[in-house]
Each structure stands twice: as structure tokens, then as C-alpha cells.
Amino acid sequence: MTQEEQITKMKKAITQAIKVMSDRFGSTEADVEKAIVELKASMLTVPAAAAQSPQSQTAVTAGV
Known about the structure:
Blueprint: H1 3-22, H2 29-44, H3 48-63
């Protein structure tokens, strides 16, 4: 998954979570649970490049 796809997925999950959480009377517990699960899933998928950035920067700094 590219970084752009990850950002899009996170934005969609955040928007859905806000919508569900703000609609106290129109949302069911299942809606809330689904929004939370999707939000968590969108945050757990980290692009490989982003996960390696801090380590690779440290290696570059250490080598200097």
C-alpha cells in the first residue's frame, strides 16, 4: 500500500468515526464498533518506507 493510499484510508476511517460518534441517536453500537475497528486498522498499516525512515536516518547520522 502506498503512502497516499494509507492516508486516504485513514482519512476515510477518521471521517466515518467522527460521523458515527457525533450521531448519538442515529448510530447503533455496531456502527460505533465498526468505525473503531476500521480506524484502528487504518492506523496499524504503516508503509514500509515510513517505518524505516527513523532507523535509516539514525544509520546515516551515525556514519557521519
